[in-house]
Design goal:
single chain; 175 residues; mainly alpha; 2 domains; three-stranded parallel beta sheet; 5 helices; 63% helix; rod-shaped
């Protein structure tokens, strides 16, 4: 098999999809173990090449009507994961913007309070309070800075991986 191929060998189609999922077969979620297996192998593949997924079934399972729906079911599952990751990204930025509004408000209030303390407090203490308030104001901005600099990268990587898996060529073959 080529380097961009993930091979999954199963005895029964039910090993691939979550059996308690009430939706029709094509819309079912992948079994958690199967999904983790596929994702862990997909992470190892080169990012610039499309993914090829081969599901090996026994001859008896290959003749089942559900066997023909396996490719569509896998693509549907990862398409849904792309949508979830996109929602997570929007939610991360929404929280980041709210955190930034709070952080900048706290920083502004801290600067104003430090200026007031500078003008009214006695000299040995005014410097301590002034610096403490400035530090507090910047610490209040830690979360939004972390969100906008770092938190969104893993979500983008996960979404891109799911997108590659949703676009993967899926084949069902006999063992």
């Amino acid at each position: 098999m080529p380097d961009d191929t993930i091979e999954v060998r199963i005895e029964d189609i039910s090993q691939l999809f979550h059996t308690l999922d009430p939706y029709p077969f094509r819309e079912r979620d992948l079994d958690r173990d199967a999904e983790e297996f596929i994702i862990s192998w997909a992470r190892e593949l080169p990012r610039n090449k499309p993914i090829h997924l081969v599901v090996y079934l026994s001859e008896s399972q290959l003749t089942q009507p559900y066997a023909q729906e396996v490719p569509a079911g896998i693509r549907q599952h990862f398409t849904h994961r792309v949508e979830q990751a996109s929602f997570d990204l929007r939610e991360t930025f929404r929280i980041g913007w709210r955190s930034l509004a709070v952080g900048l408000s706290v920083l502004t209030a801290s600067i104003v309070a430090s200026q007031a303390i500078h003008a009214t407090a006695p000299p040995p203490l005014n410097r301590v309070f002034e610096e403490s308030l400035i530090i507090f104001g910047w610490v209040a901005n830690w979360k939004p800075i972390e969100t906008f600099l770092y938190d969104w990268w893993p979500i983008i990587r996960r979404r891109n991986l799911y997108r590659r898996l949703a676009d993967a060529t899926v084949e069902v073959k006999a063992k």
